[in-house]
Structure formats: structure tokens, C-alpha cells
Write a structure and sequence with these properties.
Blueprint (H helix, E strand, L loop, with lengths): L2 H16 L2 E2 H11 L8 H13 L3 E5 L3 H9 L6 E5 L1 H11 L9 H9 L6 H29 L5 H29 L15 H7 L23
Antiparallel strand pairs: 1-3, 2-3
Helix pairs in contact: 1-3, 1-5, 1-6, 7-8
């Protein structure tokens, strides 16, 4: 499984954990409400759904009432299929949520992981945030060394571009510092104090259904904009 397909599968499982959905609604949520992915086609989504069904993590159910299904059949249209998370799918998603290794905080994964922080335990959130901060601090050190070595040889516009890149990383590090401090103090994103486990209602309001906070120019997690097959 490629990293990008893994991100999509993770996001689909997370959204279906909230409620069953059909493909159109899933695509809409991934492209808009989730705020993590740029637009992609059904040619990307449906192979992912088929893989998750084959793995036993999703099941397909008729999405229309019987009379609607009959009308769709008479009109030569296929009835909508609703995808529902299985018990095995929920268990698999919770296993993915508990992971704190490099894949959880690299550029391509971090935004998707953050979007589901409302469904993640506080200690895991802290470890992921700390891993992300450590990785960015390493990157920032390398950028500063490179900038000091090349500033005499580069034109003003190239230097300004490098400076902009460093400032973007610095802003994200400051943002991560604030988040880590809040998590350690037991505060959620609204500033209230809560225990390690949020209620399901709080999870839904601070998790995948919310907008992803972006520190300045924080890179987005993108998937390829495939064309439908």
C-alpha cells in the first residue's frame, strides 16, 4: 500500500466511524468538510472502498428505500450503495489512531491524523505533536545552515523564497508548541479543561467534522487528482 492510498483509507474509515455514507457523500466530505484533501475523482475513491470491503473493514448496504430502488431499476439506474464500518473496521481504525511513529507526523500524513484528533486519546495526540515538532525543528536547522552557506551566492528573490520557507516552518513550530502546552494542561481547542478521554459529542465537534487549524503556510496533505476510470 502506498503512503497516499494509506492516508485515503485512514480518512474513509474515520469518516465512516461517525456514520454510514454513500460514495457521493464520502467524496464531498473528503473534499470539503474534512479540509485535508484536494479534489479527486471517483476513480480514486471507489477502488479504495472496494479494498476496504475486501479486507472486511466495510460492508455495502442498499441505500434507498425499496420503492426508490425499484424506481432506480426501472429507470436503468443503479441504486445507491451505503458503506458501513464493521466491528473489524472499527478495531483497525482504532489501531491506526494509536500509532505514533514517523508516518503519523510526516508531511503527507500529519494533516489527516490531526483532523481525527478528536477521536484520539490525549497521550497519543501529545506524542504525535511532539514527533511533528521534532521533525520540523530538524528541518529548520538544516534550512538555516543552508541559508547561511548560500546567501552570498543567490539573488534576492531566491533568498526571499528561502526566508519565507523558514518563517513558515517557524510558525508551525510555534503553533505546535501552543498545542502541546494545551494538551499537557488538559485543555481542548476551546480552552476548557477535560480529562484524557473526550466524550463522543466533543469528539465529533473537534474531530473530523471541524476545520483543520493551519499554522501560516502549513503544507496540506494532498492526493493525486486522478481522472475517473
Amino acid at each position: 500500500m502506498s503512503r497516499r492510498s494509506g492516508i485515503l483509507e485512514f480518512a474513509v474509515l474515520g469518516l465512516l466511524r461517525e456514520s454510514p455514507m454513500h460514495g457521493y457523500e464520502l467524496r464531498k466530505r473528503l473534499n470539503t468538510s474534512l479540509g485535508v484533501f484536494r479534489a479527486f475523482s471517483y476513480g480514486t475513491l471507489y477502488p479504495c472502498l472496494k479494498t476496504l470491503v475486501a479486507n472486511g473493514w466495510l460492508i455495502e448496504e442498499p441505500g434507498n428505500a425499496p420503492e426508490d430502488a425499484l424506481a432506480a431499476s426501472l429507470a436503468g439506474r443503479r441504486a445507491k450503495i451505503v458503506y458501513r464500518l464493521t466491528a473489524e473496521g472499527k478495531e483497525h481504525f482504532e489501531e491506526l489512531l494509536s500509532q505514533t511513529g514517523p508516518d503519523a507526523y510526516e508531511d503527507e500524513h500529519f494533516a489527516a491524523r490531526f483532523a481525527f484528533f478528536g477521536q484520539t486519546s490525549r497521550d497519543v495526540r501529545v506524542r504525535v505533536l511532539e514527533g511533528r515538532r521534532s521533525r520540523l525543528e530538524e528541518r529548520l536547522d538544516k534550512m538555516r545552515v543552508s541559508f547561511a552557506r548560500t546567501r552570498e551566492r543567490l539573488d534576492d528573490y531566491t533568498l526571499e523564497l528561502q526566508r519565507h520557507g523558514m518563517e513558515s516552518v517557524e510558525r508551525e513550530v510555534r503553533w505546535l508548541n501552543e498545542l502541546i502546552e494545551s494538551e499537557r494542561a488538559g485543555r481542548d481547542l476551546r480552552g476548557s479543561t477535560g480529562g484524557p478521554a473526550q466524550s463522543s459529542q466533543q469528539n465529533n465537534t473537534t474531530g473530523a467534522t471541524g476545520n483543520l487549524p493551519r499554522p501560516g503556510d502549513t503544507p496540506r496533505t494532498d492526493l493525486p487528482d486522478d481522472t475517473a476510470t
